Amino acid sequence: MKFLLVFQILVLGLMSAIVFLLDSIQLIYGLSIIIILIIICIQFLGKFKARLILVWQGAFIYIVGLEGFVNHNEILVEYGNGAVYASQYIVATFFLSIIGYLIGYNLDNIKKNALNLTQTDHRTIEYKSSVFTVLFLIIMYCLFILLNFNNAIDSFYGGRNTQNFKADFSFLNSAINNTLSMTLPAIITFTFRYIYKIKNCILVSAFLSFPVFTILFLQGTRFTLLFSLAGLILVSIQNKKIKFKNIIYIALIGFVTLYVGELMRDSRGIGIVNYLSSNGKQIKDSMIELFYSKEGITGAMTMLIEYYEGDFNFHKYGASTGFIFIFWIPRILWPDKPTMLGHWLIRELPGGGFSGGHSRSFGFAGDAYVDFGLIGGIVFALIFGLFIQFLERRNKKIFINNYNVLYIAITYPFVFFAFRSLQTSFMNFLGMLVILWIFKKTLVTKNYKN
User: Fold this and answer.
1) 372-397 burial string, b = 16+ CB within 10 Å, else e?
2) Measured between alpha carbons, how far is 311 from 315 in angstroms, rounded to an integer?
3) Which of 172, 240, 282, 327 has the most CB atoms at less than 10 Å from its CB?
4) pLDDT over threshold 90, residue 56
5) 3-state class of 126 per DSSP?
6) Integer Cα distance of 132 and 145 in angstroms
């Protein structure tokens, strides 16, 4: 095991340097995908019980890797040779984040061996609902519907550019929308599986969660929809032997979700009705296009790097990353509160014409580059890898506690979509933790010793 860890660290460290010698976007991403697939095989063959890091590696392939490999010519034509360095930066910081994780993983094993830690706590905690549990679920469910129903209808017909959509997307509404939409299906499933112990809880939960999924679809928030659906599935299958036919069902659901995600992405600017009436849904030239996200992270990172190559554009030395500490302050109390990187930078660049709610994603190490350049990205990538390992360790707490599945359900999507926009994912993650904490306080618990 130790040999495999050292081998992975050495390979990834070497490749982090080698990518800066490559001058082809396709080669950079193609080689990085091959390396990651080899690393994943090593992790499985070596019984390397990694979970979140596999999600992180899959995020790279889905969100940026395949897009860069397939659309390399379009990226180069649109953004020029600067896209090559942006690709190098993205891949290098990604590799370094895995190294950070592996270092944390090794240190954790050393600590366990030194302290001779064993699994000694075998308590089972059973949860019962109270009147406050039911009341909390009803209030949260109705609040989500009331806040988002009109907005969803407006977005369906007119897209994100409608005035109502922009007005409704205030800080408070956005926070409530994201946290509730990504926790409600998981909480509903937990309630019917572990509290009321309904046999076909997934069907009941899917039925009750359908209005949530529908609203997210109409709004065009595809990643939030994926978060929400993943939470329901994870809670439903936790600690269960999955039959082959159920794997097929999950795969079909995933395929349909990917296809629906494409429709949402293509139509969210003008609305689904306008999109279908104007050009319809084109048949894909290649099925592979369903299996990667056209987020344009490479292009966005190119613009960011070139912006800071200007003589009068200085790095922010922690202010960009530090937005996470002030995001919770309502703008009504702080009218001049800074905005996130994805909002302000695109308005500094030539072109403009963005609606008030429009933003762009710059990847998990974008803010680090804004603060300290390449060095900032390198250091931050290592730190974030350690953080992923910390989350994974928390998910593997020893005593049996069914409630922990809810935390697992939100850490998986957080890690996956943190590659796209770390700040947004982290804010949503904190909001979801608050919702889960309140929900837990409404439950009545009973402890049993095994």
Assistant:
1) bebebbbbbbbebbbbbbebbeeeee
2) 11
3) 327
4) yes
5) strand
6) 20
- Tens-digit pLDDT profile for residues 100-159: 999 998 877 666 655 554 444 445 667 788 889 999 999 999 988 888 877 777 666 655
Report d(CA 124, CA 404) in Å as an integer.
12
The H or E element spanning position 270 is none
d(CA 283, CA 248): 24
Nearest C-alpha neighbor of 77 from the set 25, 31, 30, 22: 25
pTM over 0.85: no
244-288 confidence digits (pLDDT tens): 666 677 667 766 766 666 666 565 555 555 555 555 444 444 455
**Collapsed DSSP state (helix, strand, coil) of residue 446:** strand
Report the length, in residues, of the chain: 450
- What pLDDT score was predicted for residue 345? 87
Which residue pairs from 429-436 have beta carbons closer than 8 angstroms and sit at least 24 positions apart in sequence? 431/175, 431/178, 431/179, 432/179, 432/182, 432/183, 433/407, 434/179, 435/140, 435/179, 435/180, 435/183, 435/187, 436/183, 436/187, 436/406, 436/407, 436/410
- Alpha-carbon span 427 to 344, nearest angstrom: 18
The more confidently predicted of residues 211 and 226 is 211
Which two three-digit tokens encode residue 98? 């895995």
Positive or negative CA dihedral for 439, 443, 448, 450?
negative
Quick check: 410 and 230 in contact, CB under 8 A?
no
Distance (Å, whole) CA 270 – CA 431: 29
